[in-house]
Amino acid sequence: MSLLEKRLENDLTEIRNRLADQAGTVEVAVNNALQALQTGNKTLAYQTVLNDYPINRNMRRIDRLCHRFIAVHLPSGAHLRLLSAAIRVNIELERIGDYAVTISREAAQLSSPPTHALGRELDRFASETMLMLRQAIKSFNELNEELARSTKLMSGSMEYNLDTIYNEIAESSQVKDIKDTIALFVIFTQLKRVADQAKNLCEDAMFAASGSEKPPKEHNILFVDQDNALGSQLAEAIAANNHPDGGHYRSAGAAAADSLNPDLVSFMKEQGVNMDNSTPTAFSDLTPHEIADQHVIVDLAGVLGSVLPEIPFHTSVLEWDIAAEGGQGDIDTMYRTLALNIKDLIDLVRGEES
Q1: How many domains does the chain have?
Q2: What distance in Å separates the CA atoms of residue 303 and residue 301, rounded to the nearest whole number?
Q3: Which of 28, 51, 241, 270 holds its CA 20 to 30 A away from the CA of 218?
Q4: By residue range, what is the domain housing residue 311?
């Protein structure tokens, strides 16, 4: 190994060691914030807030080391991938430290630690978050792509869990103080953000290890109308056929018709789409988890309020005023309008990837 190669490896090792130390410090910060919250230890909460200053200073030192490495060594290939990932990880760790600070500040303001059902929910959600964070850090430190990939999958259930927890906080008789209620909302949101950053750490580990790029996000889109016999079925078919890689599409009605509109079936057959086996679905047939999993719900008939009084926290709702009585002419007009609206929606959420 030449002198230049040895210096490159030494500099790279220093960056990785400093990142590993920073990750360990951040993990301790989150753990201390949670301990302060669960035990009501305000001294620990305030100390965790103050301990964020060294985390911020270390972040700036690591940033300087990374940019100096690029300037001195002009890395390429695997070295450049690792440096690119290291720069992102450095930022993500600093953000996790900020989330620990927010949890600590809220813990210091709580009148008492969460108990009973909310206390159990906090313990469970915090345990899942910490496990994900530890494994994400380990996957990056060891450049373990397999561990990163399996850890990343843990985030799948957390969106739905958070919606459930928000509802429990809002309906809980245990939280009598409005300040405590708001604090709990903030705390659970910060924990979810820690999990989101852990997911990012996993993606950085996968990229550094093999160059594996983050796949485009697949969006879940649900089309809703009165009886799922015409408009919503047409929208689902257009989205699935025109944008097959843009997401997962479903449709439902406030109620379910006995069968599809026959004019729709014949019209779509002319477009090369066989809908003989499609049947109307009622909104009530969808589980709460399936509904909460939707990124976008498109209401085609102004019926969503009657079947879904509370919109899931992570779901966006669009209202498209589109109606047809049936017949080839009406359906053709609806088809053209929906195709344009759906294209605009997919372009918005997917950008050039669509």
Answers
A1: 2
A2: 5
A3: 270
A4: 219-353
